[in-house]
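Annotated sample (chain length 149).
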Amino acid sequence: MKLETGSFGTLEYEEQSVIHLPEGMLGFSKFKRYILVENGEIQPFKWLQSLDLPKVAFPMLDPHLVVQDYSCTATSEDLRSLEIEQDSDLVMLAVSIIPEDAAQATINLKAPLLINHRKMIGKQVILSESDYHTKVPILSVLDKTSTTP
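Output written by the structure step:
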């Protein structure tokens, strides 16, 4: 299948690569079908591209790249809705904001996207009982973890 996007041009994808988000993303509840766009030029970022509205795409990042011991305590209801059978079924990503000055990029650690990669079902959850923030500077955290004593 093909999708014309504003940011990536024409994308080809297979139906089995479609991630279904029954509740959509926060603020975008009408859009329920997405694909992940990956390529070497944008690593380690991935783009969550809407199939329902091609001009909507979210830059995503593995939160463990920013906070190594990042933990998401999803509710049993969330895991059940995603049909998670074992920990290895779960992929976790977080929305990033990349402004014109990329050095000011942030990641939302408070509302990760959980995906059952076997069933291709996803859900963005809000970690209300955590100390994580919605705008964590990516580069300052990465700089701290990469410095050597």
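Annotation: The chain has a mean pLDDT of 91.
Annotation: The chain has one domain: 2-146.
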